[in-house]
Each structure stands twice: as C-alpha cells, then as structure tokens.
Amino acid sequence: MHSDEPTLPEGVDEALLRAGFANGDEAVALIRANLLASSPRHRVLALRGAVRHSLLTTDDWLSALRDSDLDVRREALTLIAYEKITSDDIFREIIAALGDPDPLVVDGAAFALGEQLYVDAVEPLCLVAQSHDDARCREAAVAALGAIGDDRGRAAVLGALEDKPPVRRRAIVALSNFEGPDIEAALARASEDRDWQVRAAVNQLARENDD
Asked: Is 0.85 topped by the overall pTM?
C-alpha cells in the first residue's frame, strides 16, 4: 500500500551524519559550514565528519577545543587523541583543558595527552594526578603518565597507590612503564591491598613480566 504522505525533508542531523561518510564537494561544504553552527549538536557532528574527511586545520581544532559548549570540547578531545598532531598551539590548548571546570573535559584532555605521548605535559598531568578533586581526573592523569613513561611522573604514579581503589588499580598498570627498587617495593605492598581488584592487577602485571 502506498502512502499519500509527502517525504519529510532531511534534517540537519541526518544530513551531517550522511555527509561524514559521503564523497564530494557538497558533503565537504556542509561539514565545513556546520563547524561553527549555532547548535552544539551540529558542531559535534560536523567535527566527526571533518575528522573522517581530514578537513580540520589547526584553527579548526583550536576553535573546537575552546568551544563554549562542554559537549563540543569533550568531543574535540576524544577525536584529537587519535589524530597526528604536530602543532604546539594545539598541545598547549589541550594542556589548558586540564584546568577546565568540567571533570569530563579534564578526563578527555588527560586521555588525549597520554595517547599522544606528549612529554611536555608530564608536569601538568602530575598536578592533576596529585591534587584534582575528582577521582576520575586523577585516574586519567595517572593513566597518561604511565603511557608517557617519563621519570618525572614516577612520584605521582606511586602516590596514586594511596588513592581510591579505581585510581590505585590504574596506578598498577601505569607502573609497568617504570623500573627500580621503589617500584618493586610499591608493587609488593599493593599485592596485599584491601581491594581485590588492585591485588588482581598486581598479579596480572607479574604474569606479563614473566612472559
């Protein structure tokens, strides 16, 4: 049976989603036009499409990282973690995001810096790991310090073994990139941690080191 209802016009959300996977100048133009759209949702979708098409310039990234909307900033940090970034201006902006009032933005910034193995972020990450009010942010910073593996992060990672259980578990994983008698002693103490998942993380690390 045929419907007499007219076909509904495609919404901006649907058009942006389609453009992200489409080829051609029309798709690119739609994505670029929405990078500064009034709707945060459209800016997020445009960012995703622009990454798929490799359209983003340094200025585009900086604009997204400085966006007034939390969701756009979070999305930019999630996406940039996997991009090849060489701009010092972008890295400075990601480090600045470690001071964002939104914990999930801080978490995203720490993750991005860890994925990028950005050594110049070690000291700001140490500050987050040691003093941020939100345990999620401390955990993300510890993970990033472990990924980077710079010795300046050693004390912050060791200190995280006195934090809440999720942070302590993350610290065990992070310690895999550090060596020394202090690391061995810390792991020995952690093997008797009151949290079974911390103890399990120590055991897992020991098995991996034996392989």
From this structure: yes
Domains and CATH numbers, the chain: 85-210 (1.25.10.10)
Torsion of CA 44, 72, 32, 50, to 10 degrees: -70
Task: Tell me the per-residue pLDDT of 180-203, one tens digit each, with 9 for 90 and over.
Answer: 999 999 999 999 999 999 999 999
In this structure, what are the phi and psi dihedrals at residue 47, rounded to the nearest 5 degrees? -60, -45
Q: In angstroms, what CA-CA distances link 40 with 19, 28, 68?
A: 17, 19, 9
- C-beta of residue 155 within 8 angstroms of C-beta of residue 137: no
Give the single-character DSSP code of 117. T
Contact (CB, 8 A) for 60 and 35: yes
3 state SS of 25: helix
- Transcribe 26-52 into DSSP letters: HHHHHHHHHTT-SSHHHHHHHHHHHHH
Q: Are 147 and 125 in contact (CB under 8 A)?
A: no
Q: Which helix (H) or strand (E) holds 181?
A: helix 181-190
- By CB atoms closer than 10 A (0-12, 13-18, 19+), residue 195 is middle
Q: Tokens 């993380």 — which residue?
A: 201
Give the count of beta carbons closer than 10 Å to the beta carbon of residue 117. Answer: 12
